[in-house]
Amino acid sequence: MSELDLLTALESGLDLHATQAEEIMARDHLAVTEDTTIEEALRLMRERHALVLPVERNGMLADCVTRHDVLRAWLYQAGTMT
Q1: Single pTM value for the model
Q2: Which of 28, 32, 34, 56 has the fewest C-beta atoms under 10 angstroms from its C-beta?
Q3: Candidates 3.40.50.1000, 3.40.190.10, 3.10.580.10, 3.10.129.10; correct CATH number of 31-82?
Q4: Sheet containing 52-57: which strands, arranged edge to edge?
Q5: Alpha-carbon gap, residue 62 to 55, rounded angstroms
């Protein structure tokens, strides 16, 4: 469930205390794996307007990568950051 899912639910007047997560979470699951390249992660973020990508390992949530993480990795690869 994303922040946008929660904001949309709140905007529609749903009582979050009486609402199950599955009722408001997005159905089109977006996630990457540890093998996803920086370029692919950035492409997905841009296309889906995502600020954060869940990272899955063996079908389970292992971590999250943010736009800031992608920028830092890109700068590191370019040699402008140590």
Answers
A1: 0.68
A2: 28
A3: 3.10.580.10
A4: 32-33, 52-57, 60-66
A5: 6
